[in-house]
Amino acid sequence: MSELADHFDIRPIAADDRLNGLSLGDSKFTPLKIFLQKHARTLEAQSLARTYGVFETGGAKVLGYITLVCGEIVADPDEVNLTKDPAYRYRHYPAVKIARLAVDKNVRKNGLGKVLIELALGIAKDRISTAAGCRFLVVDSKQDAVEFYQKRGFTLLGTQTNLMRSDPILFIDLQKA
Ligand SMILES: CC(C)(COP(=O)(O)OP(=O)(O)OC[C@H]1O[C@@H](n2cnc3c(N)ncnc32)[C@H](O)[C@@H]1OP(=O)(O)O)[C@@H](O)C(=O)NCCC(=O)NCCS
């Protein structure tokens, strides 16, 4: 992390950042590129999403990003009890949701994805869950990234419906993180 910190800045996107040029490889990731280029700033201005970019230190090139929104986990209380509360079985669990995450293909496997998840966890746990009810960090993961999230401590929501989804829900319990 300290070596990385010498080469990259991770900060909220700003109005004058150049947000094009992210190279994600496979065309299935094009929507992630377009979101950053065309939509992230609008959603930022409308307080509908918060996006944090990874930038080369001293440079303008964006190398990755994560977008966070308020969200929830909705689950049939007969199937799961995420709080293990014997007195009440919830259907809606408040959460911070990772709405988008991508790292440029030329700098993958350098720990940037991990740093972005740590950033999201810190924000969810230390800033949001202390100010409003919020128990989980959640993501609808692309199949290719499920293992990445599991390595970062996320658990697959164990409902039949979820396990069959093309973009299954994974979560971290902020009280245990
Ligand atoms: C998934 C993604 C963000 C990971 O970024 P990254 O910077 O390469 O990740 P890191 O270098 O921090 O990897 C951390 C760990 O996860 C592993 N990992 C990274 N990508 C992985 C993947 N797709 N599947 C399994 N493990 C993966 C790394 O090997 C590393 O393991 P280690 O801790 O044992 O060394 C990046 O591959 C990406 O942008 N993919 C395309 C877009 C995408 O799938 N986004 C997720 C949408 S839900």
What does this structure look like?
By secondary structure, the protein is an alpha+beta fold. The chain has one domain: Gcn5-related N-acetyltransferase (GNAT) (Aminopeptidase, 3-Layer(aba) Sandwich), CATH 3.40.630. The protein is 28% helix and 28% strand. It has five helices and seven strands, in the order αβαβββαβαβαβ. The protein has a seven-stranded mixed sheet, sandwiched between helices. The longest helix is centred in the C-terminal third of the chain and has 17 residues. The radius of gyration is 17 Å and the shape is globular. The mean pLDDT is 94. Bound molecules: coenzyme A (COA). Coenzyme A binds next to β4, α3 and α4.
According to CATH, the homologous superfamily is Gcn5-related N-acetyltransferase (GNAT)
Classify the secondary structure makeup into a structural class: alpha+beta
Q: How much helicity do the residues have?
A: 25-40%
Strand percentage lies at: 25-35%
C-alpha Rg (nearest Å): 17 Å
Major β-sheet strand ordering: 1-2-3-4-5-7-6
Average the pLDDT over all residues and give the rounded result.
94
* Number of structural units classed as domains: 1
Spell the H/E element sequence.
Answer: HEHEEEHEHEHE
Can you tell me the CATH topology? Aminopeptidase
Low-confidence runs? none
CATH architecture: 3-Layer(aba) Sandwich
**How many strand elements?**
7
The 3D shape can be described as globular
Biggest pleated-sheet summary = 7 strands, mixed
How many angstroms does the end-to-end distance come to?
19 Å
